[in-house]
Amino acid sequence: MRRVTGTVGLVLALVAGAVTLGAQPSNAAPGAPTAAGTTLAAAPNIDVNNVKAHLQQLQTIATNNGGNRATGTGGHTASVSYVQQKLQAAGYTVTLQTCTSCNGSAKNVIADWPGGNTANTYMFGGHLDSVSAGPGINDDGSGSASLLEVALALAAANPTMTNHVRFAWWAGEEQGLIGSAFYVNSLTSTQKSAIKAYGTFDMIASTNAGYFVTGTDAVAVKLREYFVSISVPTETSTECCSDDGSFRDAGIPASINSTGAGRTKTSAQVTKWGGTAGAAYDPCYHKACDSYPSNINTTSLDRYADAEAYAVWALAVGSAPADDYSMSLSPTSGAVNPGGSTTTTLSTATVSGNPQTVNLSASGAPAGVTVGFNPSSVTSGGSSTVTVSTTTSAAPGTYTLTISGSGTVTHTVTYTLTVNGTGSCSGPGQKIANPGFESGATSWTSTSGVIGANTGNGSPRTGTQDAWLDGYGSAHTDTLSQSVTLPAGCASYTLSFYLKISTAETTTTVQYDKLTVQVGTATLATYSNLNVAGYTLRSFDLAAYAGQTVTLKFTGVEDSSLQTSFVIDDTALTVS
Predict the structure, then answer these.
(1) So what's the pLDDT on residue 40?
(2) Of 270, 163, 170, which Cα lies nearest the Cα of 222?
(3) How far apart are CA 455 and CA 468, in angstroms?
């Protein structure tokens, strides 16, 4: 922590911490229920011994490099390497940002855990440098080591991430918050707005500890929530300043969280937290005696490490979505004569979680009707052909069949089956009005210019008129449709039309221009510039639509260049 003299832009009065919920051990796991019966976020309990092992490494680095880890020295460089290697081995995306305004062009360590919404990023940081007077074990080895262990715990748990988490270890803090300011100034306005809160952890193991959470950002809110859960009151602090200031100056909500630096503990604070009144929170602040293990408060280090983990999990870790899927049928109804069969396609999709096996079955079939599946089970995302078969003894009527899918949950869809009466075809014949377009647009609905006495690429197959969709060589959509009623009880329902396709496209692999043929919302076929041919008869079985009024629709969509013409003539929907 760097002490700043003079007027401070943000001075917060000491205030009492939040209400105590009841007795709970100070090192309780953050995911444990509180006495009030609520459940905190399922963060792990951080092992303080692992944090202390990192502090031992930082002490050894200082000892081997002139007794300190100041920015621009070998001690700081070795500290950066230690943190970097731990994070990269755990799977973090680590960026070493050279701070050109720092002593010796020292490096900030920025570590992103993969996953989560990067537009909602929560940052947690501390400074990795010390003063030149000593090894800086509390200031700020304690924040650096605890954040490193929380980051490693997140990687080990590898939970589902709702929001994004970024950790940072700054250079140049003791020289004036230089490293964090360099980082913030390197961000675009969009990158700044993506950081929803930044919490800095600077001196969290003071031997005469207080508990200070200073800020109103989301990180501070969650830290206070945690300390309430373990019955440790907090205060805001008038001690200033650390890297939170660089973020706050850029308009990013930020907080500083510590156990105190060089100011003295009051009698009232001793009543709250224990310790010695009239003595500094850290008697070794900015001194050579800020060393390991003598200048470490294990209790406050443990509590703050768990609080950091709680904040990370509460802000960014989501529950894994339950495995679920959906089912649909196309078509959703059909008609058959006794002794006949019809098919429909059952499609599934994974809507959350992981794909799963869905076992298929049917119920509601009357005597003489059976339902088969090919295949009988699918992995969600796959499809199955459903065949509804009837015997000659199946009684005429309309029936609702229920198709069930059984996986981690069960879903159902329904299919309406009509069994026709024998010899009950009430209206055989051709059902499309003006099938060859010789009466112009009569009975058809189309976009302008589709139906007419066309020539060239659009010339008719027979007669003098046809329907010519597209052929403009520019972005264009044409439609052609007619509503048709199909009688029930017939044996055959055949849609047919002649289609000619010509194109100026040269590709043999890409469908740039398309014609879609639909009955209602179901797509019968799609043709494209890859299907160039003279007038060719196309036929489809519409028995599934017996007894219904449906809309036949042709939709031609052309891209921005090189024409494709779709010409339709001599349509028919023959029922017998």
Answers:
(1) 40
(2) 163
(3) 10
| pLDDT, greater one: 517 or 38 | 517
CA distances from 443 to 3, 356, 433, 481, 493 (A): 86, 48, 6, 9, 20
| 487: confidence class by pLDDT, cuts 50, 70, 90 | confident
Angle (nearest 5°) at CA 311 between 309 and 313: 70
Residues in CB range of 295: below 8 A, 6 or more apart = 137, 138, 205, 207, 282, 284, 289
State how beta strands 333-336 and 397-406 pair. unpaired
Instruction: Catalogue the active-site residues.
Output: 173
Tokens encoding 545: 């639509």
Angle at 344 between CA 341 and CA 345, to 5 degrees: 145
Chain mean pLDDT for the chain: 91
Angle between helices 74-90 and 143-157 (to 10 degrees): 20
Report the Cα 351 to chain-centroid distance in Å: 13
End-to-end CA distance of the chain: 90
Q: Is 576 exposed, middle or buried (0-12, 13-18, 19+ CB in 10 A)?
A: exposed
Six-digit token pair at 8?
Answer: 């401070």
pLDDT digits 0-9 by tens, 352-372: 878 999 999 999 999 999 999
Q: How far is CA 100 from CA 72, 93, 235, in A?
A: 11, 22, 36
Helix (H) or strand (E) holding 203: none
CA distances from 546 to 3, 54, 341, 370, 453 (A): 85, 76, 13, 20, 34
Give the pLDDT confidence of 14-26 residue by residue, as tens digits.
Answer: 333 332 222 233 3
Per the listing, tokens 């003295």 go with: 264
Report cis status (omega within 30 of 0) of the bond before 293. yes
Cis peptide before 30 (omega within 30 of 0): no
Rounded to 5 degrees, φ, ψ at 522 are -90, 135
Helical H segments across 36-177, by residue range: 48-63, 74-90, 143-157
Q: Quick check: 499 pLDDT over 50?
A: yes
Task: Name the residue with tokens 């007794």.
Answer: 67
